[in-house]
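Weekly sync, protein design subgroup
Attendees: M.S., D.O., the rotation student, P.L. (late)

Item 1: inverse folding check
M.S. brought a backbone from last month's batch and wanted to see whether the design step gives back something sensible before we order anything. D.O. pointed out we never logged the input encoding, so this time it goes straight into the notes. Structure tokens as presented (284 positions):
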């Protein structure tokens, strides 16, 4: 069990250090606070340091922040730190849901490291589905069809697929990823779907070592799977067309991936709720 002293002296300083590295645009400084192989580390690798301005909500431009809650799960295995950026001049403990961020940490090799950052409250994490719901019911675009400038909407746009972060070339390991990730961004898959798609592909090639022929066909197969997981109404032919490949090339690759990864259980393996546990298990 984690006590209050540990939170203040060991865990909260990690969160503060990570925020300072983000504000200082220091990728190396940020990386030292992240668990290798975690969702948070994937964000840095794929998008670079600037994605954390949105996830940590430093983009709000507030001068101060405060710890609001610390919740432990699995007998202290995971610690969820919730903090808020209150409006200047607001009353004590006065903040809204749009001001709150949750940082999930675990202890690894005698130090606390960050697993995941969610730009929402502990008990109501932001997901792609929730973000799309908020965007669909609000005034998402201005008269020119652009995302409004209000900072609070940026996390919803990122998770909902309306905000395309620049992809780091170094974060794309092969021609399949070079086709897949920009393609998913064009079709408004959110940040988490992009990360899970890259993980899915990397898990597959680590287990199967497939022939690296026709990258577009492999990319189409992975996107189709992610579309199924997001309950998008897609046909295999339509996805193949996006990648300018034939269905006859995509279909067998789709079957190969599903068979290798036991796709019936993929919704469990790649769900937002279980992501922190999956990351830790894969690194244990």
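Designed sequence read out in the meeting:
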């Amino acid at each position: 069990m984690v006590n209050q002293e540990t939170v203040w002296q060991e865990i909260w300083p990690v969160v503060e250090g990570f925020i300072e590295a983000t504000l200082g645009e220091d990728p190396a400084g940020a990386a030292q606070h992240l668990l290798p192989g975690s969702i948070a580390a994937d964000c840095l690798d794929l998008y670079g340091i600037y994605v954390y301005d949105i996830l940590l909500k430093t983009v709000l431009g507030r001068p101060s922040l405060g710890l609001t809650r610390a919740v432990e799960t699995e007998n202290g295995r995971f610690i969820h730190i919730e903090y808020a950026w209150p409006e200047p001049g607001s009353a004590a403990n006065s903040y809204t849901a749009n001001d709150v961020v949750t940082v999930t940490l675990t202890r690894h090799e005698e130090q606390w490291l960050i697993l995941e950052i969610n730009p929402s409250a502990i008990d109501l994490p932001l997901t792609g589905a929730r973000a799309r719901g908020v965007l669909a019911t609000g005034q998402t675009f201005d008269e020119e069809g652009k995302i409004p400038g209000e900072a609070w909407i940026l996390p919803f746009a990122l998770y909902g697929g309306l905000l395309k972060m620049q992809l780091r070339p170094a974060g794309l390991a092969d021609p399949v990823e070079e086709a897949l990730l920009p393609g998913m961004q064009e079709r408004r898959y959110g940040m988490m779907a992009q990360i899970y798609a890259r993980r899915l592909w990397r898990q597959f090639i680590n287990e199967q070592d497939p022939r690296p022929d026709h990258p577009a066909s492999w990319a189409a197969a992975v996107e189709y799977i992610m579309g199924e997981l997001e309950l998008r109404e897609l046909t295999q032919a339509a996805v193949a067309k996006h990648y300018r490949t034939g269905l006859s090339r995509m279909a067998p690759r789709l079957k190969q991936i599903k068979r290798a990864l036991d796709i019936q259980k993929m919704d469990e393996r790649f769900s937002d709720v279980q992501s922190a546990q999956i990351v830790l298990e894969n690194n244990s």
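Discussion: The chain has a mean pLDDT of 88. Strands lie at 66-73, 78-84, 100-108, 111-118.
Action: P.L. to compare against the previous round before Friday.
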